[in-house]
Write a structure and sequence with these properties.
By secondary structure, this protein is of the alpha+beta class. Helix content is 53%, strand content 9%. The protein has a seven-stranded mixed sheet with strand order 3-4-5-2-1-8-9.
Length: 477
């Protein structure tokens, strides 16, 4: 199939998938304006992954767009109207319609001086990558591709309509978007794009942490996050966004494998992704699990010690790593819950290695479960993913041991309902038995009984009362 036929087929398929586009185009044509489907919507249509959210561009100015869509749209919002964008909802789809742009950037911030353009060709030239610089004229059903985006899409190559140096100087976030598209689509950046990213990596510091975090999260949730991360590290972009990740290249792991901790962490990420749907085939990509897999060993460089006899140790790297992970995610403005969950997974990921061949008591198993709390399913996946040994016998033994631990957890949970572990006496009973008023001593007694509950399992009422009285006597009550 030649390229012309492919373009015709793409237009036909797009119109079949999205009758809304044809309907909207008729409204604009009646008002004397042209309407184009543009950018990611065209790219995704060609890749067979078109969503209900569509992007359009037009020669109509924002106030004219509003006049055209009012009365037709189910909903209209004007939050982006200063940038020429009008948002529309129609029959469950979200449509964004933007006036042709011909922006000028100050190249100090990434904030453009918004200027409306007069042609589709000028609008496409200012876009980030050629695969996003294609359009379909919905009036004539003509494919508009002045920068050979179709060819780049076929070859799975990311290149820029202008020179990459011009493009990235205008908006340095585009460098991170290149890594994001590598992760989402599996595309390779053109050599000149890699060169420009390497030379200009420091420019990413012009971009706010919030916008960087948005792109990084999309990268991490992509189909191939390893590709995006490797591009960030190889070009030096990661040094300004996640410096702890390239920092792991300095640490040879304790098993003396030829792979460094950085490569190990990428493999753990791959294996964690493979386990995401273990319990639920329809599960969505898990940002918390993926971040924890990537960052679980970032404490190793700071804790590396060379031992007598040639060994290497990383004592307490999980404690140091949890602090580092929280600090980095805070700097990137991640939500508080994401920060805490990732930090706790990093902190707990090593605990299983004290399990040995099953030496843990039921008390230790209870603590493992209660410390993990709602994160237990993710912790199971992270610990399993952390096994990257090439020794098949050793890997199989580790997996069998973890199978056994999960079976013990299931048995104890069934017997004791670990998800709701509480002391065998509540606060009211504690106050009644000891004659205490409400206050901190009641909380201390409650905590003592909870520790006993974790250590010994459920106590009968008389035993719990006796333990409470013993604690009270030891504390001078």
């Amino acid at each position: 199939m030649n390229e012309l036929t492919a373009k015709r087929n793409a237009v036909a398929e797009l119109m079949r998938i999205s009758p809304l586009a044809d309907e909207l185009a008729g409204l604009f044509a009646s008002a004397g304006h042209r309407l184009y489907l543009v950018g990611g919507s065209v790219r995704d249509a060609l890749l067979g992954r078109l969503s209900a959210d569509l992007d359009f561009t037009t020669d109509a100015r924002p106030e004219q767009i509003l006049k055209i869509v009012r009365g037709w749209a189910d909903g209209v919002w004007e939050a982006g109207i200063a940038f020429g964008t009008v948002g529309v909802t129609k029959r469950g789809s979200t449509l964004e319609i933007t006036t042709f742009r011909a922006d000028v950037y100050d190249r100090v911030s990434r904030n453009p001086e918004v200027t409306f353009g007069d042609s589709i060709e000028g609008d496409l030239k200012r876009r980030d990558f050629t695969v996003n610089a294609m359009a379909i004229d919905l009036s004539t059903k003509q494919f508009v591709d002045p920068h050979d985006g179709m060819d780049a899409l076929r070859r799975k190559v990311l290149d820029t309509p202008a020179t990459p140096e011009e493009s990235f100087a205008d908006d340095p976030l585009r460098m991170l978007r290149a890594a994001r598209f590598a992760a989402q689509l599996g595309f390779e950046p053109a050599p000149r794009v890699v060169t420009a990213m390497t030379e200009m990596a420091g420019e990413i510091q012009r971009i706010t942490a919030e916008r960087v975090q948005t792109e990084l999260s999309k990268l991490m949730l992509g189909r191939y996050p390893r590709r995006g991360l490797e591009l960030m590290v190889d070009t030096g972009l990661a040094e300004h966004i996640l410096p702890e990740v390239p920092g792991m290249r300095l640490a040879i792991d304790e098993h003396h494998q030829h792979k460094d901790v950085y490569q190990h962490s990428l493999t753990v990420l791959d294996q964690a992704i493979a386990l995401e749907r273990r319990d639920d085939p329809d599960a969505e990509p898990d940002l918390v699990l993926r971040l924890a897999a990537l960052l679980h060993d970032i404490g190793k460089p700071a804790t590396r010690r060379f031992e007598d006899g040639g060994g290497v140790s990383f004592h307490h790297h999980e404690v140091v790593g949890a602090k580092m992970a929280r600090k980095r995610l805070r700097a990137l403005k991640y939500p508080k819950q994401v920060i805490e969950d990732v930090g706790q997974l990093v902190f707990l990921h090593l605990r299983f290695h004290g399990y040995g061949k099953g030496e843990w008591t039921d008390s230790a198993v209870r603590r493992y479960v209660t410390d993990a709390g709602d994160l237990l399913p993710r912790l199971h996946k992270l610990v399993r993913a952390d096994c990257t040994t090439r020794n098949k016998r050793k890997a199989a033994a580790l997996q069998r041991t973890y199978d056994e631990l999960e079976e013990r957890i299931a048995r104890i949970q069934a017997e004791e309902d670990l998800a709701r572990v509480r002391p065998d006496l509540d606060g009211n009973e504690i106050m009644k038995i000891l004659g205490l008023p409400p206050g901190p001593m009641v909380g201390k007694a409650w905590k003592h009984l909870k520790e006993l509950r974790l250590d010994r399992g459920p106590l009968d009422h008389d035993e719990a009362v006796a333990e409470l009285r013993r604690w009270a006597e030891e504390n001078g009550l």
